[in-house]
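EI: anyone free to look at a 450-residue chain?
SC: sure, send it
EI:
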Amino acid sequence: MPLPTVAIVGRPNVGKSTLFNRLVGKRVALVDDRPGVTRDRREGEANLLGLDFRVIDTAGFEDEDPASLPGRMRQQTEAAVNEADVALFLVDAREGLTPLDEEIGRWLRASKTPVVLVANKAEGRAAESGIFEAFGLGFGDPIALSAEHGEGVADLFEAVRPHVERDPDAEEDDEANGDHQLKLAIVGRPNAGKSTLVNRMLGEDRMITGPEAGITRDSISLDWTWQGKPVRLVDTAGLRKRAKVEDKLEKLSAADTRRAIDYAEVVVLLLDATRGLEAQDLRIASQTLEEGRALIIAVNKWDVAEQASSLFNGIKAALAEGLSQLRDVPLLTVSAKTGKGIDTLLEVAFDLREAWSKRVPTGELNRWFEGAIEANPPPAPKGQRIKLRYITQVKSRPPSFVVFGNRLDELPDSYRRYLLNAMRRDLGIGPVPLRLEFRGRANPFDRARR
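SC: here you go
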């Protein structure tokens, strides 16, 4: 799916190229005090606090003969706006409105492209009158911005987001049309029974199996359908401790398995019931969660497990201690040999993928946020309270959120954990990785790109 497009328009020398450079994160467009430096449309890939889009820097909009150079530049600007999902209309808050600003406003109102009005160069009191003047253009509240200093970028994010954020309904339609499968990777130590499990799922001896450890070397992707739902199964090579991996081919296989984890949506970590949980299993689980993938831990060979109840409880306790970053990771028992527990495993995998893809409506999210803060207010170091203003979800897969506020560098880790745990509990997100970042309002964009 192509990236949504944002076009930056306005009269010459209002700061369009400066904003373009800030959005793409580097000095790409030439910037100078002289008007008319930009002539062609310049395009780049931008990221604004997790929003990915294509941004177009346009030439200054001038009223000239179409055959002249300024006239041809204006035609390029018109073409950019027509193809964009949203246009950022920049005015200079320090200079105030000009007749050309008003002409551009009339032209934009006649177009079908949504418009976000931005009063640039808004730092300082000298810009206040120009910001108020911008209300008269008829595009609603102007975003007070300093593209040069990064002030107001959080407000720009909120204004642009409805126009460029991926539509979750469209993603669901893609899945319904078969364009999106559940990407399920089976990982674990050598000889845990990964290939045997894949063969049992497929109902055929698709993968070579045997008592020898390390038969599988490459990650093998297989398309499959379970109860009418498309699945892409990935069988991977066994992962041993790095210190024990000496063979070059095994090193390549291990790297291939790690790429499979990156590719997957849900990862099944397969344990061997005859060996229990080992330190390497915890390392694989931690890596999976750090990559933001949903995780299921399945204990294989359960049909031959000895003292099954105590084994299960022991593994559960070890996981609670070793995976403190995410509690209640699903722990299931299966038998690749008999097929027992496989349907339950797949049901949990699809449920986890749904939670991993969850989007919380902004209103519901902020009502929860206000309640969580009221129930347990942030601390007040040295008598000065930390102010948490609002929260927004910037993406899903995994669910990722940004909290805006001030003095956030003094917010203790315990309070951050409180918010994460309350979010999982109250919003029904469940045991999937969450991303929670904190941004100050002064200059959130620069910190977000690190």
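EI: Residues 248-263 form the longest helix (16 residues).
SC: 👍
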